[in-house]
Design goal:
The protein folds into two domains: 48-76 and 85-246, Rossmann fold (3-Layer(aba) Sandwich), CATH 3.40.50.300; 251-319, Alpha-Beta Plaits. It is 34% helix and 28% strand. The chain has helices spanning 23-28, 61-69, 91-94, 106-110, 116-127, 131-145, 160-172, 190-207, 218-224, 287-295, 310-319; strands spanning 4-16, 32-45, 50-54, 76-81, 97-101, 178-182, 210-214, 227-232, 235-241, 252-259, 272-274, 277-283, 300-306.
């Protein structure tokens, strides 16, 4: 069967309990607990699909990607990718998948003081890429990512955004059909983020590749994932189209209030402040009462009522 197929998947690990008290007492008498990282999930991903995987810290996102890539094996359940079982690590499977993390990847570990091209040569040998194809692929990626000059510089001399580009090239040299991206834009400025968004879209469309992207940045998912999977405490709490997720929170509206000057006299207990505007998320049946309170405020120059932001909807779903 083609694509990614996950059935009744579980993964737990042992973690040390954090207790108050003497450091030395806890050091010599440690207690542990079993944490369910992945708790009985099921989903399928079609070939060529691009999926956003989001969740708070500890939701199980990275653990899931590690199992999909074969780095970890499940306690129970089954994963098949194009019929392969990942943790068996068949060569044909490994030649068709990559697991990229925005933290510190393969090249940073092995060629930190050398130019990226030296690391690419090692990868060429690992994946048995002939010299002509190797050069064509280097040219292909450096052209798209505008990285021709970067690959000849030592990694330690590159900025985070530049290093992310050259490491990404290394992870894709073998033209994998399955690309697992764990926080690929973490720490990047908005320009670098947009460059990667454009690249991932291009690679997905041109190579017909399957991409699964985890991120703390909701904007990443808005840009890249037509389909969204929400993980919380190891369970899937939503799996569906990104645009349909708003239907889960139909009963609220967002009211943005622009003031001519800042004031401490705000008649609301809960609100956000963004770009000089007060942001309220209000139940539909409370809108009229809220507008009356706004009318009593001084210095109001504009009011805007909109649908809730994607980020707010995600936060609300985690509360369910």
């Amino acid at each position: 069967m083609e694509g990614i197929n996950v059935c009744d998947l579980y993964k737990s690990y042992k973690a040390e309990k954090v207790k108050e008290g003497s450091f030395f007492k806890n050091f010599f008498k440690r207690e542990y607990e079993i944490v369910k990282a992945i708790d009985g999930i099921n989903f399928n991903v079609k070939k060529g699909e691009m999926v956003g995987l989001i969740g708070p810290n500890g939701a199980g996102k990275t653990t899931l990607l590690k199992m999909l890539s074969g780095v970890l094996y499940p306690d129970k359940g089954e994963i098949r990718i194009d019929g392969f079982i990942p943790f068996r690590r068949d060569r044909k499977f490994l030649e068709n998948i990559t697991f990229f993390t925005g933290q510190r990847s393969f090249l940073s570990i092995i060629v930190w003081d050398l130019a990226a091209i030296e690391g690419y040569e090692l990868l060429r040998d690992i994946y048995r890429i002939d010299r002509k194809t190797f050069k064509e692929r280097i040219d292909y990626f450096t052209d798209i990512l505008n990285a021709s000059d970067l690959i000849n510089k030592p990694l330690r001399k590159l900025s985070l955004g530049e290093r992310t580009k050259v490491e990404l090239i290394g992870s894709l040299l073998h033209f994998p059909e399955y690309v697992l991206l764990d926080e690929p834009t973490i720490g990047l400025d908005i320009v670098s983020q947009k460059n990667l968004w454009d690249f991932f879209k291009h690679y997905n469309q041109e190579r017909k590749a399957t991409l699964i992207i985890t991120s703390h940045y909701i904007r990443d998912i808005e840009e890249l994932g037509k389909r969204v999977i929400l993980l919380n405490k190891g369970k899937i709490i939503y799996d569906g189209e990104r645009d349909e997720i708003r239907e889960k929170i139909q009963y609220k509206k967002t009211i943005k209030i622009e003031l001519s000057e800042e004031t401490k006299d705000i008649p609301f207990e809960e609100y956000d402040y963004e770009d000089g505007k007060i942001i309220l998320n209000v139940e539909n049946d409370e809108i009229n009462e809220t507008l009356k309170k706004i009318a009593s405020m001084k210095n109001v120059i504009d009011i805007e009522i909109t649908e809730p932001s994607f980020e707010f909807i995600i936060r609300e779903l985690y509360k369910v």
